[in-house]
Design brief:
five-stranded mixed β-sheet, globular, mainly beta
């Protein structure tokens, strides 16, 4: 395996730019359980981590029942897995941790965070259950730690990010939520940021996003009741913005047009567009919120921007297209069934995958137009990945490579 990323790789949750965009062309428009399937391979255990693609390898995590009998109350063996991208055949499978009768929400799993790849290393994260660094070629463990355990609610979910020599992840626990940075070569803690807000429920599951603001790197990390922007090197806060009682925040934020777009979480999500500039310091709640949308904001799926349009889908399947600069809604239409997976932008199209396995392809633009509906008929909460000119779709029991 090459240690250098190519433009076609998909190294982390939501791709190389971490915002759900792929430069791939000639992607499939239609598929079914019996057509346009390059291969289908069974994936043992339960997991909703999304695929990571590097060269000729695909990586996933999964939680297998100890003893081999599937039972929601069973102890879990936490695994990282690699597959051959050309054939779907397993390349390696390693057990990293064992979790004693862990509990998780019915729409979560014990292997929900997506791995992240860099320079021949695969970093896998199971939230409060453990974190590890592997040799991506062989699966050999470089280091593994369960040092950062915390008391979760509904399990784990936040995927990690990399910055220079740090691996950073959210640890939004029931009590004392924080953001943690560890040394990517040793697994030892380098800094921790204590998140503070007035939200009564402290737990959340949001994957941070690193952005560049006039040459300054910022770690954007939403949690319950607040989004914090941190210096990713030191963990020092740059600015924060409150959104009252929002909790269980899931969608990864996106950044475009000088604004952060995020959803405030349960019980009723509100979509916020927050300006980020050289004046973003301290509490910007009263000064930098550009606009908000309260109708059909997502609880779980991450959003996407295409040009001047912002796209987001509510968990009930209502897709909204709004002006990314002003918040003016162009349309809000039924598109899928219940949905948790994040949006994918690729090949001039918008791809959605709902929880029952229905893949819907939409033409971007201010007018709602469905191009195709493709039903695999299997439960699916993981987000798309792209390999070459093909789609990867993880369902409850399988991984599919979909080809035009």
């Amino acid at each position: 395996m090459s240690s250098l990323l190519s433009a076609a790789d998909w190294p982390e949750f939501r791709g190389s730019a971490a915002q759900g965009h792929s430069d791939a062309t000639n992607l499939p428009l239609t598929w079914s359980p019996t057509s346009h399937i390059a291969w289908k391979t069974a994936v043992a255990g339960v997991g909703w981590s999304s695929p990571v693609v590097i060269g000729d390898r695909i990586f996933l995590t999964s939680a297998l029942p100890v003893g081999g009998v599937e039972d929601p109350k069973a102890d879990r063996s936490l695994h990282a897995m690699a597959f051959d991208a050309a054939t779907g055949k397993p390349a390696w499978d390693v057990e990293l941790f064992t979790a004693v009768a862990p509990r998780a929400h019915r729409k979560n799993s014990h292997a929900s965070p997506t791995p992240i790849y860099e320079d021949g290393k695969l970093y896998v994260h199971f939230g409060h259950l453990g974190t590890a660094c592997l040799d991506a070629a062989t699966g050999q463990t470089v280091w593994a730690t369960q040092e950062y355990a915390y008391s979760p609610v509904h399990g784990n979910g936040s995927s990690p990010v990399l910055f220079e020599d740090l691996l950073i992840f959210s640890a939004d626990a029931e009590k004392e939520p924080k953001v943690i940075a560890i040394d990517k070569t040793t697994g030892k803690q380098r800094w921790a940021f204590a998140r503070e807000s007035e939200a009564k429920k402290k737990f959340s599951f949001c994957t941070p996003l690193i952005i560049d603001v006039n040459g300054q790197k910022q770690l954007i990390t939403p949690g319950s009741g607040v989004v914090n922007a941190l210096n990713p090197k030191t963990g020092e806060e740059i600015w924060h913005c409150f959104y009252d009682q929002g909790y269980s925040v899931v969608p990864r934020p996106i950044y475009a047009h000088g604004m952060i777009y995020l959803s405030s979480g349960y019980d009723k999500p509100v979509l916020y567009a927050i300006k980020v500039d050289e004046n973003s310091k301290g509490d910007v709640t009263g000064t930098h919120i550009a606009w908000t949308i309260e109708k059909a904001a997502p609880h779980n799926p991450s959003m996407a921007v295409i040009g001047d349009e912002l796209y987001f889908v509510a968990d009930n399947g209502i897709l909204t297209c709004a002006d990314a600069k002003t918040g003016q809604v162009h349309y809000s239409e039924r598109c899928t069934g219940p949905i948790s997976a994040s949006l994918l932008v690729a090949d001039g199209k918008l791809y959605l995958q709902d929880e029952k396995g229905l893949g819907v392809v939409v033409k971007p633009g201010k007018t709602f137009r469905i191009l195709a509906q493709n039903d695999l008929g299997e439960r699916s909460l993981a987000s798309y990945a792209v390999v070459g000119s093909d789609l990867l779709i993880r369902t409850e029991g399988n991984l599919y490579r979909i080809r035009k």
